């Protein structure tokens, strides 16, 4: 894992000091590569550390002007366009010693209010184009202070800016809450997770080989800066390890298209990239797009599993690296993957991961607290849950047949359905087979405690005329790989209703629990 010396308090430099030192000693050093305008056709430019330090000062002075000073630092929440203002706010709240929450704009109204109440946040910030997300909290919004952050151009403009004073040592600030993220809320309302500055230092340094792999590389990061992985690459690894993130223009389509991502690849000379599997799947379909990626030293992926079929396409010309973590446990300590067995995860032993039998040849990953107190200090999850001795991730794995210690992801515990016969099966595996049909945009298979499983399907807008009969060949093909007890029957298939689509999380994946609750009556009628 990361150099243990960096976790000795005396060795750590506070983020504002680190940025100012780099701006002073190497002012022309590239911090990030950013679009020149909101239009991708206008190209990209290098953004220097001298500019970053200036923007951090501008944002700090703006906060001081807009907010009253208090003995107890107030917590700020920011939702904005996916640009450098996230980094500027992180730097400014570090300087002014204010906790900073990055909520996801896909949260429900109840989700937003639940998080804000839990952390006692009463000050909401937004870019102008995102302010309606806060206004949607009416009438409760009237009890909050709401501020619009100046446009990005204001912070990018090069002009002499007075340095915002910062005279704190690491000992002064290590226990300050730096960033607050939250869980996805896939099993209920999202829960806030507070990261102190010390925890953020662990987040950065104990991510296995991840930090050193991408150190100094111009890395395309088409991920929202409010995601945990986005925070890691856009803020922490960039400042502490010199990873150079390449940002998307603010007008980039959502979800990203392969054509748009290819424009970035051809507009700027990237040396690595970190993608969600959906983007890689789209890129893999066009040989020309693949050709433009052959200069990448590494392709990292995270957020969801990547199929072997798709990953093997990229593994022919570059190193494919799985990246995994959780809001509660941070980035997991993974070693550099074996190029031939990229789909397997290699856990650093010092991370504390153990594998407990789930069923047959499947195991759950469990983070066990080190008995050595110094080693335990490097396990972020036990700062979040100090009373635990082990943390059950609920992720399920299958070990390599011949290379012991390498593990292939097999799904979440929640993905497994147990029929009344006690037979268990991985619903996501079957759903993946059915989702290969372009007419299907969502599939949820269930049947806990029942004699046989059911299937709920959501169709693409241009396939609304399709019926269960017309879709049956796809389902039959999936059935061919299943035992008789698990095979789907035609009378156990449901289609979602117009105006009642599947609930989705921030990664765009269906929220199983909430969607099944929406269709509880219809599912009950099947049985």
From TrEMBL:
InterPro entries for this protein: Adenylate-forming_Reductase (IPR051414), AMP-binding_CS (IPR020845), AMP-dep_synth/lig_dom (IPR000873), ANL_N_sf (IPR042099)
Keywords for this protein: Phosphopantetheine, Phosphoprotein
One Pfam family recorded for the sequence: AMP-binding
Boundaries of every AMP-dependent synthetase/ligase domain copy: 20-335
Keyword Phosphoprotein appears in the UniProt entry: yes
Phosphoprotein found in the keyword field: yes
Transmembrane portions of the chain: none
Coiled coil: none
PANTHER family: ENZYME, PUTATIVE (JCVI)-RELATED (PTHR43439:SF2), PHENYLACETATE-COENZYME A LIGASE (PTHR43439)
Record-given protein name: AMP-dependent synthetase/ligase domain-containing protein
């Amino acid at each position: 894992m990361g150099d243990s010396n960096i976790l000795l308090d005396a060795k750590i430099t506070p983020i504002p000091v680190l940025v100012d030192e780099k701006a002073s000693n190497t002012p022309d050093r590239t911090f990030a590569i950013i679009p020149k305008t909101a239009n991708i056709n206008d190209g990209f430019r290098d953004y220097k550390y001298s500019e970053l330090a200036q923007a951090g000062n501008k944002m700090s002075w703006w906060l001081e002007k807009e907010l009253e000073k208090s003995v107890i630092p107030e917590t700020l929440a920011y939702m904005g366009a996916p640009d450098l203002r996230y980094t500027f706010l992180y730097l400014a709240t570090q300087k002014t010693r204010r906790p900073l929450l990055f909520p996801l704009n896909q949260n429900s109204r109840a989700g937003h209010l639940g998080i804000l109440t839990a952390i006692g946040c009463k000050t909401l910030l937004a870019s102008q184009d995102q302010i309606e997300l806060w206004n949607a909290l009416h009438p409760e919004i009237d009890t909050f202070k709401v501020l619009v952050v100046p446009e990005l151009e204001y912070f990018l403009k090069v002009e002499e800016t007075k340095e915002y004073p910062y005279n704190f040592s690491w000992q002064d600030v290590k226990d300050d809450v730096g960033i607050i993220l939250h869980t996805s809320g896939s099993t209920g309302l999202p829960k806030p997770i507070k990261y102190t500055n010390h925890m953020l230092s662990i987040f950065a340094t104990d991510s296995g080989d991840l930090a050193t792999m991408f150190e100094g590389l111009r890395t395309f990061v088409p991920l929202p800066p409010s995601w945990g992985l986005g925070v890691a690459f856009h803020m922490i690894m960039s400042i502490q390890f010199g990873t150079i993130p390449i940002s998307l223009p603010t007008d980039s389509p959502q979800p990203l298209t392969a054509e748009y991502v290819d424009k970035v690849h051809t507009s700027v000379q990237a040396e690595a990239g970190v993608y969600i599997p959906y983007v890689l799947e789209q890129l893999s379909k066009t040989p020309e797009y693949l050709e433009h990626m052959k200069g990448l030293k590494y392709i990292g992926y995270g957020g969801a599993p990547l199929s072997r079929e798709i990953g093997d396409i990229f593994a022919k010309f570059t190193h494919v690296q799985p990246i995994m973590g959780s809001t509660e446990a941070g980035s997991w300590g993974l070693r550099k993957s074996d190029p031939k067995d990229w789909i397997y995860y290699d856990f650093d032993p010092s991370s504390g991961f153990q594998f407990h039998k789930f069923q047959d040849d499947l195991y759950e990953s469990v983070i066990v607290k080190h008995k050595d107190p110094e080693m335990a200090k490097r396990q972020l999850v036990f700062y979040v849950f100090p009373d635990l001795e082990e943390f059950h991730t609920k992720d399920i794995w299958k070990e390599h047949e011949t290379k012991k210690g390498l593990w292939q992801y097999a799904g979440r515990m929640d993905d497994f359905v147990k029929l009344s016969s006690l037979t268990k099966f991985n619903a996501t595996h079957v759903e993946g087979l059915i989702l290969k049909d372009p007419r299907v945009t969502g599939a949820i298979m269930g049947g806990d405690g029942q004699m046989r499983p059911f299937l709920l399907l959501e169709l693409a807008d241009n396939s609304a005329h399709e019926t269960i009969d017309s879709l049956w060949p796809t389902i039959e093909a999936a059935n061919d790989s299943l035992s008789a007890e698990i095979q789907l029957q035609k009378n156990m298939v449901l289609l979602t209703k117009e105006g009642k689509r599947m609930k989705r999380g921030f990664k765009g994946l269906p929220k199983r629990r909430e969607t099944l609750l929406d269709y509880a009556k219809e599912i009950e009628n099947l049985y």
